[in-house]
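Module 6 notes. Inverse folding takes a fixed backbone as the condition and produces residue identities as the prediction. Think of it as a translation problem where the source language is geometry and the target language is the twenty amino acids. Below is one complete input and output pair. Work through it position by position during the lab.
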């Protein structure tokens, strides 16, 4: 599309910052202030998620992009509320973090933590899918839909805490695709206690995946993670 058309479209549908929602030039994803804030709160490496990966988690490595606070938190909420810009921005940053924990050439495909059909209909898209597609495009790895499903239930994930998160995670299932020997990158927006990603990873491995690398756009602070894990263990 040429520049004139883009400018005309921008008058009709103004581009907005993927984090704070302020008006932006048509070719930007987030504003300078939010970008500066994100750079102040990077999550370069998630020690908690990578520590004793085999003993503690079913996944083989983990990558995260930002701490879940400030502009990053606003970006995740905006992504669930119709603005897709944060997914495109975070996807590129996340791809860099993934390169630090694994060789992209070893990845067979990129997939994501799904949402229910009903929520997808209401929201119009799956935010984790947007993120996964941005990551996949940056890493030049194909995406695969339909490896996991989420059963419908009354409670949304952000409404549960601690032990309930483990029960909530039980709603995610594999779909029986033959993933024998594959290395799969599994994307989500927020890594909190890890219960959803643990369940999804186990399901992918039950369908034959040899390795699963998890990638989350944001991670909650370590103290909160430790508390969440302790709550689940107790
Ligand atoms: Zn902004």
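Target side of the pair, the amino acids:
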């Amino acid at each position: 599309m040429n520049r004139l058309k883009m400018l005309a479209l921008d008058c009709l549908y103004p581009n907005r910052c993927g984090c704070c929602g302020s008006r932006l030039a048509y070719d930007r994803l987030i504003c300078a202030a939010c970008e500066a804030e994100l750079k102040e709160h990077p999550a370069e490496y998630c020690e908690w998620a990578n520590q004793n990966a085999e003993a503690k988690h079913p996944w083989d490595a983990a990558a995260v992009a930002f701490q879940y606070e400030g502009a990053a938190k606003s970006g995740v909420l905006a992504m669930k509320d119709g603005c897709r810009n944060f997914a495109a921005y975070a996807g590129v940053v996340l791809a860099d973090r993934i390169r630090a924990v694994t060789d992209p050439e070893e990845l067979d495909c990129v997939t994501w933590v799904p949402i229910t059909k009903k929520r997808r209909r209401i929201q119009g898209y799956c935010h984790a899918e947007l993120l996964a597609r941005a990551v996949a495009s940056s890493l030049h790895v194909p995406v695969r839909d339909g490896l996991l499903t989420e059963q419908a239930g009354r409670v949304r994930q952000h409404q549960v805490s601690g032990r309930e998160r483990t029960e909530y995670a039980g709603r995610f299932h594999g779909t029986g695709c033959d993933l024998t020997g594959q290395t799969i990158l599994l994307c989500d927006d927020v890594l909190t206690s890890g219960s959803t990603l643990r369940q999804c990873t186990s399901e992918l491995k039950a369908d034959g995946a040899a390795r699963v690398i998890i990638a989350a756009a944001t991670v909650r602070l370590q103290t909160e993670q430790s508390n969440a894990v302790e709550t689940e263990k107790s």
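Reference fact for the lab report: The pocket of zinc ion is lined by residues 17, 19-20, 22, 30-31, 33-34 (CB under 6 Å).
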